[in-house]
Write a structure and sequence with these properties.
Helices cover 40% and strands 21% of the residues. The protein is an alpha/beta fold and 300 residues long. The chain has three domains: 84 residues, Winged helix-like DNA-binding domain superfamily/Winged helix DNA-binding domain (Arc Repressor Mutant, subunit A, Orthogonal Bundle), CATH 1.10.10.10; 93 residues, 3-Layer(aba) Sandwich (D-Maltodextrin-Binding Protein, domain 2); 97 residues, 3-Layer(aba) Sandwich (D-Maltodextrin-Binding Protein, domain 2), CATH 3.40.190.10. The chain has a five-stranded mixed β-sheet with strand order 4-3-5-11-6, with helices on both faces. Helix 1 crosses helix 2, helix 1 packs across helix 4 and helix 2 crosses helix 3. The longest helix is centred in the N-terminal third of the chain and has 28 residues. The C terminus is likely disordered.
Length: 300
């Protein structure tokens, strides 16, 4: 049974006339008549009664009309859903992100994506960069938000956001009175920081920056989470060099100051390089770049 037969039948039932129904579905009357006969042969019962003036449905035809309309409506919905899926407008998307983005960047991107694509279910997973690369390879997440570099050659990446490092200081620290610092101003200060194995690239970038100013930071306390590190700063344990968007996490006792010549950290989206990006991933990339880099056009 073909959908065109159902369309022909519905048109005939509603027009009650072969000529008008044929015009409505853009076929000649003979073709419409043949289509209805084929349909009746397939169903095995008469669906219409034919008179010289009009066409009427049999009781079987009345019942068949209900199902025919439902089938055509479902077919149209299925086609539209497929088209929306091809545009990335429906489906499911699993996004990995490094913890810091929860304080800036990620909320804005996810909020905008849900506004534009409300039919896409978004699942968020907080993972380190290394965990994201493994999850992307294993198909556990669809797209990841992490810091450069992306080491796995099997992953494609798209730059989204560039953020400088800043100094997080105890509010009562003498340097807090300045509007801008030099990295050399922190020589001799106790530092709090991540363990290197968790943020190797970030850690090494800070160490190189300080080495360029002639000193090695003395890390007196390590912690895994950003709020913990900032709480240590507030307690006067040490200073910290976070990415600028962490300054959105306002904690009593902590002030943030720009540092002249601070290195810039680049946040990127990553996804499996093989094949074309899934439509939902493509849609997410376009939204993310529009939110985080309004002047750039997405080219995943």
């Amino acid at each position: 049974m073909e959908l065109r037969h159902l369309r022909h039948f519905v048109a005939l039932a509603e027009e009650e006339h072969f000529g008008r129904a044929a015009e409505r579905v853009f076929v000649v009357q003979q073709a419409l008549s043949s289509s209805i006969r084929n349909l009746e042969d397939e169903v095995g019962v008469a669906l219409v009664t034919r008179t010289t003036r009009r066409v009427q449905l049999t009781p079987a035809g009345e019942e068949f009309l209900v199902g025919a309309r439902q089938t055509l409506a479902l077919a149209a919905q299925t086609v539209e859903r497929s088209r929306r899926a091809a545009r990335g407008e429906v489906g499911r998307l699993t996004v990995g992100f490094v913890s810091g983005l929860a304080f800036g960047g990620l909320p804005e991107v996810v909020r905008r994506f849900r506004e534009v694509f409300p039919a896409v279910s978004v699942d968020l997973r907080e993972l380190t960069a290394q965990e994201q690369e493994a999850a992307l390879r294993g198909g556990l997440i669809d797209v990841g938000l992490l810091l450069l570099p992306v080491r796995d050659p099997a992953l494609a990446s798209l730059p989204l956001w560039r953020q400088p490092l800043v100094a997080a200081l105890p509010a009562e620290h003498p340097l807090a009175a300045r509007e801008e610092l030099e990295i050399g101003d922190l020589r001799g200060e106790p530092f709090v920081f991540f363990p290197r194995h968790l943020r190797a690239t970030y850690f090494d970038q800070v160490m190189r920056w300080c080495a360029g100013a002639g000193f090695t930071p003395g890390v007196v306390q390590e912690a895994i989470e950003i709020p913990t590190l900032l709480s240590l700063v507030a307690a006067g344990v040490g200073v910290f060099l976070p990415i600028e968007f962490f300054s959105r996490l306002a904690l009593p006792g902590v002030v943030y100051r720009p540092v002249r010549g601070a290195p810039v950290v680049e946040i990127v989206a990553a996804w499996p390089r093989a094949g074309q990006a899934r439509p939902t991933v493509q849609a997410f990339l376009e939204v993310a770049q529009g939110v985080l880099s309004p002047s750039a056009a997405a080219e995943p």
